[in-house]
Amino acid sequence: MNMRIPRHLIVSFTISVLAVSIPAACQDYAIGADVSFLAQAEQQGVVFKENGVAKPGLEILRDHGYNWIRLRLFRVPTDLPNNLDYTIALAKKAKSLGFHFLLDYHYADTWADPGHQPMPKAWEGKRHEELVDAVFAYTRDTIAAFRDAGVLPDMVQVGNEITNGMMWPDGKLPENWDKFAQLVYAGINGVDAGRGNGRRPRIMIHLDRGADWKGTKAFLDKLNSYDIPYDVIGQSYYPWWHGSLNELRANLEFMAREYRKDVIVVEAAYNWQPGNYIGKPAPFPESPEGQRQFLDEVNRVVMETPNGRGKGVFWWEPAVTGPLTARGFFDDTHNALPVITVFDRFSRK
After folding, report:
1. Angle CA(306)–CA(307)–CA(313) in degrees, nearest 5?
2. Most Cβ neighbours (<10 Å): which of 23, 81, 134, 347?
C-alpha cells in the first residue's frame, strides 16, 4: 500500500528563483566547500599556507570567493570528529567570516553513502514508528542547538546520498519506499520545528547520480509521488564513478526542466596527482593544473543550466588528509594548489 503523506501536513517551502550570471555577484550562487575535516586538521597541527605564507584554511577559501561551507553531522561518531559540538564550533568560525552554512545530516554514527546507510547504534531495534519519532526529535533538537548558538543553517540536507535509502534496513530502497518517505518527511518536519522563529532553511535532497539522468528520474519521480516538500536537488559528481561532463550537463538540463527546482553539484572532486585514472584515459590530467581545469569546467556546466537553475558547486573536501589528500586543495606541505584560484575572476577586481 502506498502510504502517501497527507497534503495538509506538508510544510511549505518558498523557492527562490533568481537567475545568476556571475557567482560572486550574488549570494544566490554557492561557491562552496565541505570543510568538515578542516578544524580537526588545524587542531592536529596542520598549518595551511598560500604561497608559503601561513593562513587559516577558512580565510584562504574566503579570500578566493568561497561563500558557502558544508558540514556533515554524525549522531554519535566514535572515530570521526563530526559531532554536534564540533560542528557548531566550526559553523561559528565560518559564519563570523561571512559564509553561508549547509548542514549535512547523515542520520548515522559514521559515513552514510549509497553503499552504506547504517542505523545509529542508539536506534537499533526500534520499531518503524519509533524511528520516525526519533528522526523528528533528533533533527528538531539539533537544529534548535544551532539556532541557539546563532548559526541556524541556511540549507539542510535530510540524508546523505540517499538514492538507496537511509537508516538501513528500515529505510532501505527500493523495498521500503513508504518507510523511507516517512523518515525523510520526519527530518524535514524536524527542521521546521527546531528553527523556532528563525528563517526556514532550504531543504536539499542529495543523490549520487550526477551524470545519470535515468537514475535521477527514477528516484525523484518516486520521491515526488509522496508529496515530500523540498527546495533543492543536490548531486554528487565524481567523474571516475559517475560519467562524463556531457552526461552531467544533460542531467542538469533534465532536472531543471523536469522538476523546476534549483540544482547544486554538492560534492565534486578531482586528484592533483595520479589516483583514479592510473592506466586508463582521464578527462583531465591528474595534476595540479588538471584539477584546476576540472573544477573550472564543472562550474561552467552548472552555470549553463537552463533557467538559472544551476545554483552552485561544492568541493569535497579541501582539507582532507591521509589516503585522499590528492583530492584536497593543498599539497603535501599544506600549500594551496592552483585549484584555489578558479573563482578569482568572479570575486577579485
Report:
1. 65
2. 23
Give the catalytic positions in this structure.
161, 267
Assign 166 to helix, strand or coil: strand
Q: Which helix (H) or strand (E) element contains residue 111? A: none
Angle (nearest 5°) at CA 159 between 158 and 162: 125
Cβ pair 206, 126 in contact under 8 A: no
Distance CA 292, CA 289 (A): 5
Strand partners, 143: none
Calculate helix-pair angle for 288-303, 245-259, nearest 10 degrees. Answer: 20
pLDDT digits (tens, 9 = 90+) for 151-210: 999 999 999 999 999 999 999 999 999 999 999 999 999 999 999 999 999 999 999 999
Pick the CATH number of 20-347 from 3.40.605.10, 3.30.9.10, 3.20.20.80, 3.40.190.10: 3.20.20.80
Please tell me the distance from the alpha carbon of residue 146 to that of residue 236, in angstroms, as a whole number: 25
SS3 235: strand
| Domain spans in the chain, listed from the N-terminal domain onward | 20-347
Which residue, 281, 115, 143, is CA-closest to 135?
Answer: 143
Nearest 10 degrees: Cα torsion 161, 252, 341, 93? -40
3-state secondary structure of 333: coil
Q: What whole-number distance in Å separates Cα of residue 322 and Cα of residue 331?
A: 12
Note whether 101 and 69 are within 8 A (CB): yes
Contacts of 55 (CB under 8 A, 6+ apart): 48, 49, 63
pTM of the model: 0.92
> For residue 199, which phi and psi values (nearest 5 degrees)?
-65, 135
227-237 per-position pLDDT tens digit: 999 999 999 99
Which residues of the chain fall below pLDDT 70?
A: 1-27, 348-349
